[in-house]
Specification:
It is a single chain. The protein is α+β, with helices and mostly antiparallel strands and about 160 residues long. The radius of gyration is 15 Å and the shape is globular.
Length: about 160
């Protein structure tokens, strides 16, 4: 993989979301995580931003801006649970995707469960719509429906 480009998305202190975009390979896409800035000098912390201020806004903005978005435990390069690893493997067969490591922020981890009214992670969104978790993604993959769904992804 090439070195990833980094885009900083300010959020409520004491942390910032950081997104890295991989341009090639099976993990092509944008992957977001939370970086703590609590030990940063105030001069270097975000003070004004039009970016999301809370978990719900971040979730909503993420799934609107990225046609295929996965909320997962860990990163595509280093999943932290077998279910997330399975979904990453399936998606990697079809398309690049954006992701968020929910382990990096408890607010996003709990917020995504409330947002979707779905109790487990990973959670896949396609064209802004909740698709499901690992079991549903696996079933859609096995039936061929996921391939059709991803073929209709907004470019």
């Amino acid at each position: 993989l090439r070195a990833a480009a980094s885009v900083r998305l300010p959020s409520a202190a004491p942390s910032d979301f950081v997104c890295k975009t991989n341009t090639t390979g099976v993990f092509a896409g944008t992957h977001c995580f939370l970086r703590s800035i609590s030990d940063s000098h105030p001069d270097f912390q975000s003070s004004v931003s039009a970016e999301p201020k809370n978990a719900e806004e971040f979730i909503s903005k993420s799934i609107k801006e990225h046609p295929v978005f996965l909320f997962m435990k860990g990163t595509p390069q280093q999943p932290q649970c077998g279910f997330s690893k399975a979904v990453v493997g399936i998606l990697s067969e079809y398309t690049g995707f954006a992701s968020c490591n929910v382990l990096a922020d408890p607010d996003v981890r709990e917020g995504i469960k409330k947002f979707s009214n779905w109790p487990t992670i990973p959670q896949l969104y396609v064209n802004g719509n909740f698709v499901g978790g690992c079991d549903i993604v696996t079933q859609l993959h096995q039936s061929g429906e996921l391939k059709e769904m991803l073929a209709e992804v907004k470019k």
